[in-house]
Amino acid sequence: MKPIQVGIVGATGYAGVELIRILLNHPGVELAGLCSVSFEGKTIDQVYPAFHEIIDKTLVNEDEVIDASDVIFTGVPHGVCEAFAAKALAKGKKVIDLGADFRLDKEEDFQQWYGLPYRHPELHKKSVYCIPELHRDLVPGKEIIGNPGCYPTSIALGLAPLLKSGKADAQSIIIDSKSGVTGSGRGLSQTSHYPECNEAFSPYKVAAHRHTPEIEQTLSQLAGEELKVTFVPHLLPVNRGIVSTIYVGLKESLSAQDLRQMYQDYYQTEKFVRVLPLGEVANLRNVKYSNYCDISLHVDSRTNRAIVVSTIDNMVKGAAGQAVQNMNLLFGLPEDTGLGMIPPSF
Amino acid sequence: MKPIQVGIVGATGYAGVELIRILLNHPGVELAGLCSVSFEGKTIDQVYPAFHEIIDKTLVNEDEVIDASDVIFTGVPHGVCEAFAAKALAKGKKVIDLGADFRLDKEEDFQQWYGLPYRHPELHKKSVYCIPELHRDLVPGKEIIGNPGCYPTSIALGLAPLLKSGKADAQSIIIDSKSGVTGSGRGLSQTSHYPECNEAFSPYKVAAHRHTPEIEQTLSQLAGEELKVTFVPHLLPVNRGIVSTIYVGLKESLSAQDLRQMYQDYYQTEKFVRVLPLGEVANLRNVKYSNYCDISLHVDSRTNRAIVVSTIDNMVKGAAGQAVQNMNLLFGLPEDTGLGMIPPSF
Amino acid sequence: MKPIQVGIVGATGYAGVELIRILLNHPGVELAGLCSVSFEGKTIDQVYPAFHEIIDKTLVNEDEVIDASDVIFTGVPHGVCEAFAAKALAKGKKVIDLGADFRLDKEEDFQQWYGLPYRHPELHKKSVYCIPELHRDLVPGKEIIGNPGCYPTSIALGLAPLLKSGKADAQSIIIDSKSGVTGSGRGLSQTSHYPECNEAFSPYKVAAHRHTPEIEQTLSQLAGEELKVTFVPHLLPVNRGIVSTIYVGLKESLSAQDLRQMYQDYYQTEKFVRVLPLGEVANLRNVKYSNYCDISLHVDSRTNRAIVVSTIDNMVKGAAGQAVQNMNLLFGLPEDTGLGMIPPSF
Amino acid sequence: MKPIQVGIVGATGYAGVELIRILLNHPGVELAGLCSVSFEGKTIDQVYPAFHEIIDKTLVNEDEVIDASDVIFTGVPHGVCEAFAAKALAKGKKVIDLGADFRLDKEEDFQQWYGLPYRHPELHKKSVYCIPELHRDLVPGKEIIGNPGCYPTSIALGLAPLLKSGKADAQSIIIDSKSGVTGSGRGLSQTSHYPECNEAFSPYKVAAHRHTPEIEQTLSQLAGEELKVTFVPHLLPVNRGIVSTIYVGLKESLSAQDLRQMYQDYYQTEKFVRVLPLGEVANLRNVKYSNYCDISLHVDSRTNRAIVVSTIDNMVKGAAGQAVQNMNLLFGLPEDTGLGMIPPSF
């Protein structure tokens, strides 16, 4: 089969670099074009020396990438992909956006949280938001995939079985998430300056993070009712990984065994979701550099709450890996193609 | 004034070492005796080379420490201090226990969570649990102080004004705490082995940590009703510091401004509690190596919950520093004597 | 082709775990048997949860591993592999030892540095020490490979072209190496206890590390004269990676350009050695999790010394990856089979 | 005694912040004025929240600082302090420069390494470069102190006794130094961006660092002959601390015992230099947050080289602490006033 020609716009951002790393070992694709506004004209290995003697493609503009590609991944600021996608679709290409432009169903949510209107409303009928384990049936016929955010992925996978079961108090959800520093990208800032980030820890954007509407959208669908969550992200002094500790009131008492069984049943055919044995606690070190989501289940019977711990690598299942999984879906390849990375234990 | 003669039992544990560091710069005390079961006969600077040419006291047995001291700090496993305190009090000495033996009011709580009975019930009438900002009035006349646990200190200080106000739903409290690795002490374990602890993150003892009854005891007193909390600690890959992110339902709506003002009023005369300006978020890097507790206040008006972020250095305000503050109380010294450590910003 | 049946003795040590991670993605092998003395009877994913749902082989004893395998990797304390290899060879199996038993040509060196005699001298004729880039021609006909140490690999690759050229003062070599903490293995110790290893840095075994004779053996061969080096390793607070900064006096003046060209020429056909462009400096972050060795070349013309910076991942090119490279050599597979891991940039 | 009125120009740089932290606990001074070009008009605790409720001085311009102060510390880019010092001395004030303007005796060195001429040559007669342990006798009568660089401090203290002894081959010195990230200051850069600095390690400015002439100047004086060194700094993923591993050829053989005794004798009256017992190795964790310099001595008898390991906290003995030590000298206070910080072991 002719390899899929793949382009990346925003190739020198962290998600772009991770896409390159994964796609170079994907047997069904060819890297056709890499675009970087900041480094156009340089080769990718000049910007990221880890790629020396592996790939030395020159960074070009976005039009060259569109022309060379069947599908283009975009890792760009919100508002930018929409215009890009209009151009790409006009040339018959597909788009997988790792940003926020195609994640929210309701334009008013986008306006409220991102401060921008939809400039190409028609594109949003051709697009679908897709966490494969939850939404893969919606992909056929679509031309754009809104790749989920890192926090929402860990949270939606962590809550889907429980919300579907109807046993949770859907209005009681509190989510305390912690993310590695790659989550805030390549851009420099005082908070990611090593001496101020190392040996430090803090929440940020307390109950005000832009992933909130995306989280609520998916959880509301799962619960079958409109719900609101309290969501507090924290910056964790590690390079990679997200741990979401999720607190949910239970409508009735439920044993940890039954809770775990519910998750086992729900995810039994899912390769990338691992429901841990009772007694283990999900730890980001066991999913780093891989596409797995590990989930451990706990019950606080004293207060009748379930506690779900869900962990992913924010750059893989939370960004580039899930995007490749979505590409596989879009092109009818086995969903795990190119995603066999085994998490190193250290 | 004759300096207070101070002893430390468990001097080579992390809390012991931190006590030495603080007490060496305390103008009103003399280090009279250091006891370490593991290293008896060695000098303290042989075990901790950071002390070279600063202090080279030989580690002795506990009886020698009792004889030489007016007050003894104990940093020993639970169940050990009780017997020690009986001996020390019999000789007219005072005891400040950094362990769990004198923290819980009800023996049944101790039995349930620590699996031991009280062997010297009479001592518990001579002892008091004391977070100085909350309990200092209870100290006069006591001979033993149960120094609070690290997590409970951050949590009780973080919730006192709100619970006192009666505006919180006292049964709704969820506490997501994160602690640096010194919290688990000097003892070796796979979870604190560098390659498995670095670039890792996970909760532990989910809804089952022994600090739970201590937390509930203090919060119930503050709220004026029996309450239960969901408490989940996490191991954070930093040396020092605790951040507790605390979620509380509000009985009525409350602005962040009003919430902050409530805390300002409550803590206005407290040197070691800093209520941060609105817009700032408490970060452990700003309290490291100091006796401060920083608290930031947030309101999630969408779900009508208050979010309190409370941070301390687990080894200082969460252990040795607070113990020295308690010693100052016990001996009538200004409470901040010897505690002027300024947190370095990096 | 029938897959090679591969066994690992010491499977729960860090090198063993890394071998499993690599071999699971190697297209020409099957993991036939895993031995762990400490965890016999458990499954590998019970010991390392990162392997959940990927591999759940039960850990067995070494005899079962020998019977099931064509080739066995051993990651065991020095002195242990020799006896094991005698058993394995008697059954017609091959052995790749990641320990020290088959690294030194002279028994007297082994006795001096490891305190043990050779108990099976005959095996040492059937074995070969092999850094593939330097010694691959010696492998044919051998049944045991002494897989090189991590420090010696980084150093020998860093110095080979210069020593071969005859332009170096071979007696002037000073090597300042820094290794990540996985280098000291899974075993617990105070020096790898997180709070004492994090935010710390120090040399260890100053001019007394057991890798010294191995380094001198290879460098002497390359230089064509007996030489001694000063070698000082340091413990670096990172999980993985070695950086060796190597100082060599030059017999004649040499420009950085010429020095780099010499290395380019020497390594031009080597996939796993990357000679960096002038102006770049080798950084372990660019080789982590991969089998690459990055080398940067510098000249201090003020003192007429060459400075070579050589970096590898101590667990991959410094252990498991090179062992797999050696296995490929031993079985006539392309040397890079299963070693296509691309270093992530973060 | 009236407290010395102290000003800081560059108060929001890392050295400035560290000066504030130290001086606030110094019994003989008052912080009279803080200048920051970037944050003029803000209060220092708005920029560094660690100072909340401790100090809230408003940042002003440099002229206000001069007027308010008896002595001014400057932490500013090279070339800036010279002009400032001219103004300050004209008003009868003293200056302690933590930058490079007053470190080099020869203007040609300054021109070569910093690319600037001296604009006020007359000031250089009123200034002195001072590592107190080596140069305190030169201070009386001076009005400006050139506070030494961090690397040069660790290196000069590490080599002084050996060079003075005449037993070293002064032309053979190779220095491999490793510094924590605070050494590169508050300014943002890709190399100190957390995800690229964490789990990374590399030399930089190989044999080309600007501290080289300062190192050579001091070492040449000590050796009594002009010498050149090879100096290679590395960026270490820790916040604080420098370890310099120094290699020196010996003219005659020397035991480690004799070498250590030589250092003991030399430094016996020095409070801030600790010569470690044989068998211990200097580790930056034992000097962090303190003004100590720890030195361990080693001999590689196989190659007849001495290896000196010297470690300091780059922000304290390598910057602010030494500057305060110099201020004490300048004003006739006991040299250790305000410098009693005890290194925490973790």
The percentage helix of chain A is: 25-40%
**Number of E-state strands of chain A:** 13
Radius of gyration of chain A: 20 Å
Quick check: average pLDDT of chain A? 97
Q: Could you tell me the strand content of chain A as a percent range?
A: 15-25%
Instruction: Give the largest interface.
Output: A-B, 47 and 47 residues
Report the principal-axis shape of chain A: globular
Widest sheet: strand ordering of chain A:
8-9-7-10-13-12-11
Q: Can you give a write-up of this model?
A:
- Four copies of one chain form a homotetramer.
- Chain A has 346 residues and is α/β, with parallel strands linked by helices.
- Chain A is built from eleven helices and 13 strands.
- A seven-stranded mixed sheet of chain A has the order 8-9-7-10-13-12-11. A six-stranded parallel sheet of chain A has the order 2-1-3-4-6-5, sandwiched between helices.
- In chain A, strand 1, helix 1 and strand 2 form a beta-alpha-beta unit.
- In chain A, helix 1 packs across helix 11 and helix 7 packs parallel to helix 9.
- Chain A is globular, with a radius of gyration of 20 Å.
- In chain A, 61% of the residues are buried.
- The mean pLDDT of chain A is 97.
- Chains in contact: A-B, A-C, A-D, B-C, B-D, C-D.
- At the A-B interface, strand 7, strand 8, strand 9, strand 10 and strand 12 of A face strand 7, strand 8, strand 9, strand 10 and strand 12 of B.
- Chains A, B, C, D: InterPro entries: AGPR, AGPR_AS, AGPR_dimerisation_dom, AGPR_type-1, NAD(P)-bd_dom_sf, Semialdehyde_DH_NAD-bd.
- Chains A, B, C, D: One of its GO terms (molecular function) is NAD binding.
- Chains A, B, C, D: Its EC number is 1.2.1.38.
- Chains A, B, C, D: Catalyzes the NADPH-dependent reduction of N-acetyl-5-glutamyl phosphate to yield N-acetyl-L-glutamate 5-semialdehyde.
